[in-house]
Design goal:
Helix content: 25-40%
Distance between the termini: 112 Å
Strand content: 25-35%
């Protein structure tokens, strides 16, 4: 005869897999102090798990300098600048230390526009400048928030015009992206169009009169590489207004390559610092040069490596399990200690109360015997008086 084995449910199977011995419920004692410790233990475990999960998925960042050995990569320049001169009178191009033809880097788009902004555009540009200035000043206090924010840009693009002016355009918007060599160079906007002369660099500006020069400009975007959260572009939101026709503006830019490690891999971008210089051009007063806007950039030999300040997943998981186990083990010790203290205090108080009750009962019994003796004496005295009287 074959005996059919009863099918075990899931709870019984899991219980049998438990390798640690358990105490039967009949041998355990449930107390109020134990329940309080269990509740506190549960709260501590929940807080620990919340802290560890937050630490792993939203870690802080570590920054360190290392040598930049990537010498053959390209440098991407993103620019959006408006100059208060018609597009026919100005030209923008790149000249770097390789002396290559400027046209191999690409061409920027030149869009005729009006320099004066509408009210909503002016409000947007002013607020963008204020935000960028605040972030530059308070960057060291806000860098952790910015790196964790996930926003590659904290402000959008300039809103479009709502009405078209009837006057002809008096400005030129130069915008686009150029792919440059990773060497020092000079991006500039000057009077006249670029002449594609082999082995030379020139702008045709001999037919311009002095009153046609006006290098008042507004920078809406100037960045290098891809947009990454945590990087501030210092020149975005800057505006230079001048009433001097022949004026030159120099921006000396120091570019630092930045390598950011993410969950999906590494991203290489660039951040920069800038120094400014503006001076009028007057050959009579000895201030020589060519009017225009010059962005002279150079790259650092060191790069910043940004990494997450955390361990690997399995190391983190082992640490979490160890922390939870430590809290549970400590709670058992605390529960036993509290139980011992409570029992000791309660036994001491119970012993004192018992002694007081025993003393009280003894006093009551002693008082009753004395009263009986006195009563008997009084009765004898009465009897004696009665006999004597008789």
């Amino acid at each position: 005869m074959v005996l059919r084995q009863r099918k075990k449910n899931f709870k019984e199977v899991v219980t049998e897999l438990d390798a640690f011995p358990k105490v039967e419920l009949t041998y355990t004692e449930r107390t109020a102090s134990g329940a309080s410790v269990a509740i506190l233990t549960f709260i501590c475990v929940v807080l620990l798990l919340h802290s560890e999960i937050t630490y792993y998925f939203w870690p802080s960042y570590k920054f360190r300098f290392i040598s930049d050995t990537d010498l053959h990569s390209k440098l991407k320049l993103n620019v959006d600048i408006t100059v208060a001169m018609p597009c026919d009178l100005i030209g923008a191009d790149i000249l770097d230390k390789t002396d290559q033809n400027a046209f191999i880097f690409g061409r920027l788009r030149e869009e005729p526009t009006w320099y004066e902004l509408e009210e909503h555009q002016q409000t947007f540009f002013i607020e963008m400048g204020r935000l960028n200035a605040y972030l530059r000043e308070e960057f060291h206090q806000l860098q952790d928030i910015l790196w964790k924010s996930g926003f590659s840009r904290l402000y959008g693009d300039m809103p479009a015009r709502r009405t078209q002016p009837t006057d002809p355009p008096n400005a030129c918007r130069i915008h686009g992206t150029l792919t440059l060599n990773k060497v020092a160079g000079n991006f500039h906007v000057t009077a006249g169009k670029v002449l594609p002369i082999p082995g030379a660099h020139a702008h045709l500006a001999s037919f311009l009169s002095d009153h046609e020069y006006n290098f008042t400009h507004r920078i809406e975007k100037l960045s290098f590489g891809d947009s990454v959260a945590g990087i501030i572009q210092p020149l975005e939101g800057e505006e230079k207004i001048t009433n001097i026709n022949k004026m030159t503006f120099h921006y000396f830019i120091d570019i630092v390559p930045t390598e950011v490690e993410r969950y999906i891999g590494k991203r290489v971008t660039y951040q920069y610092s800038v120094k400014e210089l503006a001076r009028p051009i007057s050959h009579q007063e000895g201030s020589h040069g060519t009017p225009g806007i010059y962005f002279k950039y150079d790259l650092s030999a060191m790069k910043v490596q940004v990494t997450s300040d955390r361990e690997g997943f399995f190391m983190w998981l082992v640490g979490v399990c160890a922390g939870v186990g430590g809290i549970v083990a400590t709670s058992n010790i605390v529960a036993l200690l509290i139980k011992w203290i409570v029992n000791t205090v309660c036994c001491t108080l119970a012993g004192k109360n018992k002694d007081k009750k025993d003393d009280g009962s003894r006093n009551i019994n002693g008082g009753g015997a004395n009263s009986n003796t006195n009563t008997k004496s009084d009765l004898n005295i009465v009897k004696t008086d009665a006999n004597g009287g008789s």
